[in-house]
Structures are given as structure tokens and as C-alpha cells.
């Protein structure tokens, strides 16, 4: 039975909302399985509370924290050092406390690419991704670093469009890969991009919550050789994934990304590999 001691270390999630997260279950199970004297808690922290909350990592000698909405970008200026991937992505999801020196990392892209391997989906030559937000950007960066030669990105022509375009140019310059931004309303461009892609990624929120009955594209554009990944994990099977399965395409949801980004953070904090096989049954 797990016992809290006078030397028990703390790790945490800083997010709003935070109470729905499976991260405490995942990390506490891993701590107990490996006999690590630590606990993981979830705290409702927004950008207003974030500076003080990050200072508490030092004050309480915490192992570190995970960050989710809305804190990934705001935390960049509040840590002492940022990993190369975190800088390129423009956001961090993990902070590691190295004796008061706080280092920011982004493990989202690592988690996504590892989840493809778990689903028997090969690293593609070209991929198409819907959305240009924080998670989608992390996926783009890691995909480019891992050898994806061409990435077509589709996003609404909103106020963030020019910012996303500039970010893609930065990623292309740093990685030597081809990244092109298109308006998501351009149906012809989307159809042409998918014809040359081996992987489609939904990095939007279309398919969850109030949009749970919607699909981010016309299912007629899907075909069996096009693997489909959706970073949504609630519901476990979105409309997009259901349509892809109907035609025999390989699919994966966001649970794998969640698991493996957490495993990467766990290793950064502890220096040990998360016991993945003990965690998987908890995330069905």
C-alpha cells in the first residue's frame, strides 16, 4: 500500500479545466509500480495564477509539472530554459525541476509519433493535418524532425492564419522540410493534398463535445491507404475515425498520444521509463 512520507515528492498538472484529466491516475500508478516516493495531483491553474504556481515548483521542490490549456505558451517566459523542440513549437507541456532550475519541454509531438508506431502506422513521406493550434504544431515539428518530408496544413483563415504561416516557415527553415498552409475552406487543395498523403491527422476539436456528431472533412475524400489519426480521445471513436474504419483504413485516437507524451514527461522527471504495460489497461 502506498504511503506518503516526509520525503514524498510532488508532480502536478496545471490546467483549466484539470479535473477531467487521466494524468493523475497514469502517473500515480507508475510511481507506485516503480516504488518512487512521489505523488501527482491536478490543479486548476490559469494564466493569471500561472506565475505564482510555477514559482511553487521551486519553493516546494517539486519534480515538475505538466501544462495544458491555457498555459503552454504563457509558461515559456516563466521558466529558466526551454528545449529546442519547445522553442520551435512555441509552447511547452512539461517543466522539469533541476534543483531550482526550471527547464521547459514539449512532449506532445513525441507522444503522437510513438502512438503511430503503436497503431502500426508508418512514418509517412507526406502528411495532411487539419488545424494549426498548439497540439497540431507540436505534431508538425516532431513529424518534420522524424523524417516526414512534406506536411500540408489546413486551417481556417482567421486572425491566427498569418501567425501560423510564419510558424510553418520557421519550422521549414529549421528542419529542411516542406510545410505549406492552406485555407481549410479550399476543398480542391484538400482533395489534392490527401491524394499524395499517407497520413491524415485531425488536430481540431471537430468531433468532440458539442461537435461530437461532426466530421472535419467529407468522408468521401478518405481511402484505404490513407491512415487516419485523431488527437481527440473523448469520444474514443470520432465520426472521422468511424468513417475511416468503414473503408478499412488504419486509425488511431488521441489516447496513444496522451499516454506516450506522459511517458516522456515521466522519464524527464524520474530518469526511469514509465511501465507502459501497467498503464494501458487504465486508459481504455
Automatic annotation (TrEMBL):
Name of this chain's protein: Shikimate dehydrogenase (NADP(+))
Domain Shikimate dehydrogenase substrate binding N-terminal: 13-95
Main EC class the enzyme belongs to: oxidoreductase
Keyword Transferase (UniProt): no
One MF term in the entry's GO annotations: NADP binding
Keywords attached to this entry: Amino-acid biosynthesis, Aromatic amino acid biosynthesis, NADP, Oxidoreductase
Pfam family, one: Shikimate_dh_N
Reaction equation(s) it catalyzes: shikimate + NADP(+) = 3-dehydroshikimate + NADPH + H(+); shikimate + NAD(+) = 3-dehydroshikimate + NADH + H(+); L-quinate + NAD(+) = 3-dehydroquinate + NADH + H(+)
UniProt similarity note: Belongs to the shikimate dehydrogenase family.
Pathway(s) annotated for this protein in UniProt: Aromatic compound metabolism; 3,4-dihydroxybenzoate biosynthesis; 3-dehydroquinate from D-quinate (NAD(+) route); Metabolic intermediate biosynthesis; chorismate biosynthesis; chorismate from D-erythrose 4-phosphate and phosphoenolpyruvate: step 4/7
Binding site for shikimate: 21-23, 68, 93, 108, 233, 261
GO BP terms: amino acid biosynthetic process; aromatic amino acid family biosynthetic process; chorismate biosynthetic process; shikimate metabolic process
This protein's encoding gene: aroE
SUPFAM superfamilies, per the entry: Aminoacid dehydrogenase-like, N-terminal domain (SSF53223), NAD(P)-binding Rossmann-fold domains (SSF51735)
Annotated positions binding NADP(+): 231, 254
Protein function: Involved in the biosynthesis of the chorismate, which leads to the biosynthesis of aromatic amino acids. Catalyzes the reversible NADPH linked reduction of 3-dehydroshikimate (DHSA) to yield shikimate (SA).
Amino acid at each position: 500500500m502506498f504511503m506518503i512520507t516526509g520525503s514524498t515528492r510532488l508532480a502536478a498538472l496545471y490546467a483549466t479545466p484539470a479535473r477531467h484529466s487521466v494524468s493523475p491516475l497514469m502517473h500515480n500508478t507508475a510511481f507506485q509500480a516503480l516504488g518512487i516516493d512521489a505523488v501527482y495531483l491536478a490543479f486548476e491553474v490559469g494564466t493569471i495564477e500561472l506565475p505564482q504556481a510555477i514559482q511553487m515548483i521551486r519553493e516546494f521542490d517539486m519534480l515538475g509539472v505538466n501544462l495544458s490549456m491555457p498555459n503552454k505558451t504563457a509558461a515559456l517566459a516563466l521558466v529558466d530554459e526551454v528545449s529546442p523542440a519547445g522553442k520551435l513549437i512555441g509552447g511547452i507541456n512539461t517543466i522539469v525541476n533541476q534543483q531550482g532550475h526550471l527547464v521547459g519541454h514539449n512532449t506532445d509531438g513525441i507522444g503522437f509519433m510513438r502512438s503511430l508506431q503503436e497503431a502500426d502506422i508508418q512514418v509517412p513521406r507526406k502528411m495532411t493535418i487539419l488545424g494549426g493550434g498548439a497540439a497540431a504544431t507540436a505534431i508538425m515539428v516532431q513529424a518534420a524532425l522524424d523524417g516526414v518530408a512534406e506536411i500540408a496544413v489546413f486551417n481556417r483563415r482567421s486572425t491566427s492564419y498569418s501567425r501560423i504561416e510564419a510558424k510553418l516557415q520557421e519550422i521549414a527553415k529549421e528542419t529542411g522540410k516542406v510545410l505549406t498552409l492552406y485555407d481549410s475552406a479550399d476543398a480542391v487543395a484538400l482533395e489534392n493534398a490527401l491524394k499524395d498523403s499517407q497520413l491524415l491527422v485531425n488536430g481540431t476539436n471537430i468531433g468532440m463535445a458539442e461537435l461530437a456528431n461532426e466530421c472535419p472533412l467529407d468522408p468521401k475524400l478518405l481511402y484505404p491507404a490513407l491512415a487516419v489519426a485523431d488527437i481527440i480521445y473523448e469520444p474514443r471513436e470520432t465520426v472521422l475515425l468511424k468513417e475511416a474504419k468503414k473503408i478499412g483504413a488504419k486509425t488511431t485516437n488521441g489516447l496513444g498520444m496522451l499516454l506516450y507524451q506522459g511517458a516522456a514527461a515521466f522519464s524527464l522527471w524520474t530518469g526511469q521509463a514509465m511501465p507502459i504495460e501497467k498503464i494501458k489497461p487504465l486508459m481504455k
